[in-house]
Amino acid sequence: ALPMADEIAAALGEIAAGQRALEARIAALAVAPAVAATKPLAPPRRPPPAPPPRPAAAPQPKLALGDGAEPQALPAEDFVRAVDFPRDARDREGFAVLRRALDHHPTGQVVTAAQDVLTLLSQDGIFMDDLETAPATPATWRIFAEGARGPQVAAMASIRDRSALTIAATRMREDTVFRDAVHHFLRAFDRALADFAAGAADAELAALSDTRSGRAFALMGRVAGLFD
Questions:
Q1: Which residues contact 64 (CB under 8 A, 6 or more apart)?
Q2: Comparing C-alpha atoms, which of 106, 64, 110, 56 is closest to residue 84?
């Protein structure tokens, strides 16, 4: 059974708290060396002699995880689970997957953007698990991911909940913060979908379409005219 709205809100609250704690830990790690680097040093009595010239160092071998290395993609199952968010505040496995997703920069961008939109929609009483939907087929999601637009992908506009559509459309017109958050989410999810669909099976695309982020994409994509 789908979790109740209050459980979703509690889970999103824990996600936000977890992200704040993670950011605080990262900030603390960054501050320590910075403080050490700014300690005053006693000036030397005289200028030190210039060091003799050193031979050029041999180039360092590149490591698999060195600078500029492309982040390794998350397994499809983890990506789907992460963008669906933990099912409730007791979903330890869901939170573990979410932490791994946040450590993976491309997925972390999608998760954070989706969280922002889900939180804003919840302020108007719109929860993804409550929406009436007739999901598009995996084939439709696949051709959309490959760049198709117009009548071919009209079924992507699968959210049928008139109240949610009306509220979301009104807020898109009147709330610039909401509109900016939605556009950021749509771009981030669209990019991630293109990468995901390239190697995903039909069952994995179907699972993605029914996640909370997938439903939010269908809802806000329809409102924004993305599927026209």
A1: none
A2: 110
Question: How many Cα atoms within 13 Å fall on the side-chain side of residue 23?
Answer: 8
> What residue has token string 């099912």?
87
At residue 133, φ and ψ (nearest 5 deg) are: -145, 150
Tens-place pLDDT, residues 100-150: 999 988 899 999 999 999 999 999 999 999 998 888 999 999 999 999 999
CA-based radius of gyration for the chain: 23
φ and ψ of 224, to 5 deg: -85, -5
Is there a contact between 133 and 212 (Cβ–Cβ < 8 Å)? no
Give the single-character DSSP code of 88. Answer: S
- Other C-beta atoms lying within 10 Å of the C-beta of residue 225: 8
Q: Which residues of 104-138 are buried (b: 16+ CB within 10 A; e: fewer)?
A: bebbbbbbbbbbbbbebbeeeebbbeebebebbeb
Nearest-angstrom CA–CA distance, 136 and 158: 6
Best CA proximity match to 172, nearest among 225, 99, 102, 107: 225
| Among 85, 66, 77, residue whose Cα is nearest residue 129 | 85
Q: ∠78-227-156 over CA atoms, to 5°?
A: 50
Length of the chain: 228
For 159, which DSSP code?
Answer: B
